[in-house]
Specification:
The chain is α/β, with parallel strands linked by helices. About 40% of the residues lie in helices and about 20% in strands. The protein has helices at about 20-30, 50-60, 75-90, 110-120; strands spanning about 5-10, 35-40, 65-70, 95-100. A four-stranded parallel β-sheet has the order 2-1-3-4, with helices on both faces. Helix 2 (about 50-60) runs parallel beside helix 3.
Amino acid sequence: MTQQKALVLFGHGARDERWKEPFLKLQELIAQNSNARVELSFLELMSPSLPDVIDQLVSDGFKTVEVIPVFFGQGGHIRKDFPAILDACRSKHPEIQLSAKPAVGEDLGVLQAIAKYCAN
């Protein structure tokens, strides 16, 4: 394994598989510009779940995993569900460094890119 770090994009999930298409494109774009392995995970309605992805990454030998919630804001899923899932993963795998970024919609650069898109 040449990659030392894994990134996990964490989305809500939906019943319609087409909902996942922008996430797959985002995964591809990040992978093209990063030395990290990039995986997708979902809170509900789609698989794989975040715990399943973390389990697989640990099995594959990764010691550093960063989770990036691809959510716009700090709703109940990000304030309550996500920390509980992350804590359970940390308890199960104390041997890895498991961190998380804020939701992408909390980043000023992301909001500026969306504003630019909307204005044009």
